[in-house]
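Reproducibility note. Readers wishing to regenerate the assembly model reported in the main text can use the exact inputs given here. Chain order matters: entities are listed in the order in which they were concatenated for prediction.
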Amino acid sequence: SQQGEEDPQALSIQEGENATMNCSYKTSINNLQWYRQNSGRGLVHLILIRSNEREKHSGRLRVTLDTSKKSSSLLITASRAADTASYFCATAAAGGADGLTFGKGTHLIIQP
Amino acid sequence: EAGVVQSPRYKIIEKKQPVAFWCNPISGHNTLYWYLQNLGQGPELLIRYENEEAVDDSQLPKDRFSAERLKGVDSTLKIQPAELGDSAVYLCASALSTDTQYFGPGTRLTVL
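Running the prediction on these inputs yields the following structure tokens for the assembly.
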């Protein structure tokens, strides 16, 4: 079963604009991670934010986490055509060492 | 550093036939995961290994799926017999801890 729900399911923006994707989850977490998947390829880890963190940056990526609302957002600034991909949030359950629970993903299209 | 290697990349078989997937994790990663990804969905965990021990196989359909990780390095995932509904991408990931997982390119299985 999938815990996370990304929103929107699909997003199309112009190159240079910012893209924001949201993720909601249901249970307590140890950390939340964002992954990117290009068509027909494996997943690439983008960023990890722990449950005691509220915001994290990595290059053009900014992730926020609100554990009270059980939600996270991923912001990609100054988007590029190469950012076209599916983006998944994944949660690691609190108190366990289980595998990640993924959402269904947001398909991002950057129009040149 | 070499990434997670999976083979084959693509496999087409007829239903009721057996099939096997192979994964070589990143050197030194003691944790290995197998995920299943259906089209348009996020990956779903099938089994997790800590070294050679399967510590979470609750999502593995044990009537037809089996996995092994001999010597705590390479792993194989087998389906026997395959059904039409098994068509999906099978992803392998490895990790040093319960944090960042590194994914292979996956094996795309088509069952006819």
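We highlight two features of this model. The mean pLDDT of chain B is 93. The radius of gyration of chain B is 13 Å.
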